[in-house]
Design goal:
Blueprint (H helix, E strand, L loop, with lengths): L1 H21 L4 H28 L7 H26 L4 H6 L4 H72 L1 H19 L6 E3 H19 L3 E7 L7 E3 L3 H13 L6 E10 L2 E9 L12 H15 L5 E6 L2 E9 L3
Parallel strand pairs: 2-4
Antiparallel strand pairs: 1-3, 4-5, 5-7, 6-7
Helix pairs in contact: 1-2, 2-3, 2-5, 3-5, 5-6, 5-9, 6-7, 7-8, 8-9
C-alpha cells in the first residue's frame, strides 16, 4: 500500500503539473500547486481509509456516504482555495484568472474523492470478507479436530474394555498369558498416546503398530485367530493417517469370529495405484447368518467420517462380499 500510494502521488503530481502549465502557469507555480493539491488529496485519502476501518455503510445508508463525499470535497476545495490565495496574495493576474476556475477544480476534487471512497470501501469490504472467511475456516478446523478427537475417544475405550476383560479372564487360569497381554496392551497404548489424529505416518510404522494390536487379539482368541499380511515393499514409505487401520482390522476380527467356533484368517494386503495407497482387509463370514451390508459397526463408520474430515471425500472406503469373504478396501491419496 505504501508503494501504491507513492506511485499514485507521483503520477497525479506529474499530471497536474502538465495541466497547470498548459493553462498558463509557470513551471514553478504548476509544480507547487500540483504538490499541494495531491498532498491534500492524499491526506483526505487517509481520512477516508481510517473512516472505513470503523464504519461500513449498508445499502440503506448510502445517502450518508454521498453526504460524506460532498463534505470532504467542500473541505478540500476550501483548504486549497485559502492556500493558493495566500501564496499568490500579491498576484492580481492569478487572483483574477486562476482562482476563478476553482469550481472546475472542485469537479476534479469531487471525482478524486469519489474514486478514493469507492476504492477504500471495496478494499475494506473485501478485507472484512477475507477475515470472516478465515475465522470460518479456523472454526471449521477446530470443529474437525474436536470431532477427530471425539472419534478416537469413542473408539479406544471400546478396545481397551475388551482387552481388560480378557486379561481378567486369563489372570486366574493363565497368569503368564495375562502378564504378556498387559505388556502388549501397555506398548500399544503408549504408541497410541504419542500419535496425533491428523498425523501421517509411514505404512511400515502403521503396520508395526497394528501388529501390537493383533498380538493382543491373538492372546484373547487363541488358536481361533490367524493373520496373513501381504505387504508390497513399495508401499512401506507411503503415508497413512495414524491409527487408521486398527478399527478396520478390529471390525474384521469381530465379524469374522461371529457365528463360528473354527479358526479364521484375517488377510491384510497393501498396494498402490495411480497416486493412491490401497489397503485391503478380508475376513470370512457366514452368508446364512451374517449381515455384511448393515453390520459394519462403529469402526468403519468412524473411519469413513475421519477420511472425509481429512480429505473431503466419501469414496475412499468401500466394502464388498463375495464367496463368503468380506473385503474392506481403503484408499489413501498420496501428496508429494
Amino acid at each position: 500500500m505504501i508503494i501504491i500510494t507513492i506511485c499514485w502521488w507521483l503520477f497525479w503530481s506529474f499530471g497536474q503539473t502538465m495541466v497547470y502549465h498548459r493553462i498558463g502557469l509557470s513551471w514553478r507555480d504548476s509544480l507547487l500547486e500540483s504538490i499541494i493539491t495531491t498532498t491534500v488529496l492524499a491526506l483526505i485519502g487517509i481520512i477516508i481509509s481510517n473512516t472505513f476501518r470503523y464504519y461500513q455503510p449498508v445499502s440503506k445508508n448510502f445517502y450518508l456516504l454521498g453526504g460524506y463525499i460532498i463534505l470532504l470535497t467542500a473541505l478540500t476545495g476550501r483548504t486549497l482555495y485559502l492556500s493558493f490565495s495566500s501564496l499568490h496574495a500579491d498576484d492580481a493576474h492569478y487572483q483574477e484568472h486562476y482562482l476563478g476556475i476553482m469550481p472546475l477544480r472542485g469537479i476534479y476534487y469531487l471525482l478524486m474523492i469519489t474514486l478514493m471512497t469507492i476504492f477504500f470501501w471495496f478494499r475494506n469490504k473485501i478485507e472484512d470478507q477475507t477475515r470472516a472467511r478465515q475465522r470460518g475456516e479456523e472454526a471449521e478446523k477446530l470443529m474437525r479436530e474436536a470431532e477427530l478427537s471425539r472419534l478416537r475417544l469413542q473408539l479406544q475405550p471400546h478396545f481397551l474394555f475388551n482387552s481388560l476383560n480378557s486379561i481378567s479372564a486369563l489372570a486366574g487360569s493363565k497368569p503368564e498369558e495375562a502378564r504378556k497381554m498387559i505388556q502388549q496392551l501397555s506398548d500399544f497404548l503408549r504408541g497410541t498416546l504419542r500419535k496425533d489424529d491428523q498425523q501421517l505416518v509411514s505404512v511400515h510404522e502403521e503396520l508395526r503398530h497394528l501388529t501390537l494390536y493383533l498380538d493382543i487379539e491373538k492372546v484373547r482368541f487363541g488358536h481361533r485367530l490367524k493373520t496373513e499380511l501381504i505387504r508390497d515393499e513399495i508401499t512401506d514409505e507411503l503415508k497413512v493417517p495414524s491409527l487408521l487401520l486398527q478399527p478396520i482390522v478390529e471390525n474384521a476380527v469381530k465379524f469374522g469370529l461371529y457365528d463360528t467356533t473354527e479358526a479364521i484368517v484375517i488377510r491384510i494386503e497393501t498396494g498402490s495405484e495411480e497416486g493412491l495407497l490401497v489397503v485391503k482387509v478380508q475376513n470370512p463370514y457366514d452368508p446364512a447368518t451374517a449381515r455384511p451390508n448393515s453390520g459394519t459397526g462403529f469402526g468403519l463408520s468412524s473411519v469413513q467420517r475421519r477420511l472425509y474430515l481429512l480429505y473431503g471425500r466419501n469414496d475412499l472406503l468401500t466394502t464388498s462380499h463375495l464367496n463368503g469373504i468380506f473385503t474392506t478396501t481403503l484408499k489413501i491419496p498420496q501428496y508429494k
